Amino acid sequence: MHEVRARIAAAAARAGRNVADITLLAVSKAQPADSVRAAAAAGLTEFGESYLNEALGKLEALAGLALTWHFIGRLQANKTRPIAERFQWVHGLERLHIAERLSAQRPVHAPPLNVCIQVNLAGEASKAGVAPAQLPQLAEALGALPRLRLRGLMCIPPAERDPERQRAWFARLRELREALNAQGAGLDTLSMGMSADFESAILEGSTVVRIGTALFGPRSLPA
Ligand SMILES: *Cc1c(COP(=O)(O)O)cnc(C)c1O
User: Fold this and answer.
1) Pocket lining: 24 vs ligand 1, CB cutoff 6 Å
2) pLDDT tens readout for residues 67-95
3) What is the pLDDT of residues 4-57, one digit of tens each?
4) Is the CB of 212 within 6 Å of ligand 1?
5) Among 1, 109, 139, 216, which is least packed by CB within 10 angstroms?
6) By alpha-carbon position, which residue is closest to atom 7 of ligand 1?
């Protein structure tokens, strides 16, 4: 964890950014609850999960800790309720009808659910996310849902060997956010960068890096 923190700080310094503006989201999917407990004891507070059943067991086991939970996996329409009830963030939103369910199912006493729209920058068939051209329309529709708060954009770009080319994808997401903000969207979040590429993402303005293996080592639980 200290090594990851040091790398984040170095990338922030290189970008001329304040390290406090970059959230380390620890991706604990396929890691045991004890690993989360250890990471929390070391000072981490934000955790990301992708598989709902596994996540719910872990949330139960760790209910005594003041942690913020982010759902970063694929969303299924018939499994939105526990996400609306138990998580504080959803990063992979791409469909309006799922967003409508999350908004309707968000408990009235809870603050609005923070959401990011996932953008499929390269149009990869294997990846989720909306095409950049669909983004303005979806962002506007989400803005009308009372129990969601649209915070920003998320991406999982193609892996590039050349760091400059990797940066270009992240720059594209930053530009898409700038375009929405120029229309008054008020988005404060760019959820981009994983173990293999978070430094490039920070250089292009990432505010949330989602890091699993670089923090916890290889994943162990069956997905
Ligand atoms: C698994 C996952 C991560 C973390 O990946 P690592 O390469 O282990 O850092 C980040 N974001 C999403 C959406 C993931 O599914």
Assistant:
1) no
2) 999 999 999 999 999 999 999 999 999 99
3) 999 999 999 999 999 999 999 999 999 999 999 999 999 999 999 999 999 999
4) yes
5) 109
6) 195
**Short-list 85, 151, 86, CA closest to 118:** 151
Burial class (CB in 10 A: 0-12, 13-18, 19+), 17: middle
Percent of the chain at pLDDT exceeding 70:
99
Give the helix ranges, DSSP H, for the chain. 2-15, 33-41, 52-61, 81-86, 96-105, 135-143, 163-182, 198-203, 213-216
Residues in the chain: 223
> Domain limits of the chain?
2-216
Q: Is 222's pLDDT higher than 80?
A: no
Ligand 1 atom at minimum distance from 194 CA: 9
In this structure, CATH architecture of domain 2-216: Alpha-Beta Barrel (3.20)
For the chain, how big is the Rg over CA atoms in Å? 17
pLDDT at position 190: 98
Index of the ligand 1 atom closest to the CA of residue 72: 13
Residues 217, 35: contact at Cβ < 8 Å?
Answer: no
